[in-house]
């Protein structure tokens, strides 16, 4: 085996090893769906990553802008997984602000606790109709 092959890892395996996704198939689907960009371009799950590559990973409302710091095909502990990449300070700031905004929105809305009970639904109807 040559040295070039050891310096590269499939992007779906690396995302799984870095604990961005729970399974490799979910990671592959995210890459295929355009949720992961390699060096600002769409890519395929079989694309080989190398050290220093820039990745943009979008999961739900959050986006990570990271640089590949180490390569691994094996999934380890979360502490070890965090050593595989470096997140940009701007990305971390934006992500933390987004998390705080979502948390504040959720706390301000008492109706986000699931399906309302019959009593709660009737109270909502009365409130909307202006009764009481």
Descriptive overview:
- The protein is α+β, with helices and mostly antiparallel strands.
- It folds into two domains: 87 residues, Roll (Structural Genomics Hypothetical 15.5 Kd Protein In mrcA-pckA Intergenic Region, Chain A); 43 residues.
- It is 42% helix and 19% strand.
- It is built from six helices and seven strands, in the order αβααβββββαβαα.
- The chain has a five-stranded antiparallel sheet.
- The chain is elongated.
- It starts with a helix and ends with a helix.
- The model has no long low-confidence stretch (mean pLDDT 89).
Radius of gyration: 21 Å
Shape: elongated
Number of helices: 6
Unreliable spans: none
Task: Tell me the fraction of residues in β-strands, as a range.
Answer: 15-25%
CATH superfamily of the largest domain: RNA-binding S4 domain
The structure class reads alpha+beta
Question: Regarding quaternary structure, how should these chains be classified?
Answer: single chain
Instruction: Write the H/E string, N to C.
Output: HEHHEEEEEHEHH
Helical fraction equals: 40-55%
Main-sheet strand order equals: 3-2-5-6-7
Mind summarizing the main beta sheet?
5 strands, antiparallel
Overall average residue pLDDT: 89
Query: What is the top-level CATH class of the largest domain?
Result: Alpha Beta
How many structural units, i.e. domains? 2
- Please give the number of β-strands: 7
CATH architecture of the largest domain: Roll
């Amino acid at each position: 085996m040559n040295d070039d092959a050891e310096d590269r890892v499939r992007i779906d395996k690396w995302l799984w090893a870095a604990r961005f996704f729970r399974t490799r198939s979910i990671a592959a689907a995210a890459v295929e769906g355009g949720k992961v960009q390699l060096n600002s371009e769409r890519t395929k799950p079989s694309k080989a990553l190398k050290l220093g590559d820039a990745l943009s990973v979008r999961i739900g409302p959050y986006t990570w802008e990271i640089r590949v710091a180490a390569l691994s095909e094996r999934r380890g502990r979360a502490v070890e997984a965090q050593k595989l990449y470096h997140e940009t300070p701007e990305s971390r700031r934006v992500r933390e602000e987004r998390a705080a905004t979502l948390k504040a929105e959720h706390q301000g809305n008492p109706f986000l606790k699931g399906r309302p009970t019959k009593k709660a639904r009737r109270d909502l109807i009365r409130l909307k109709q202006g009764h009481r």
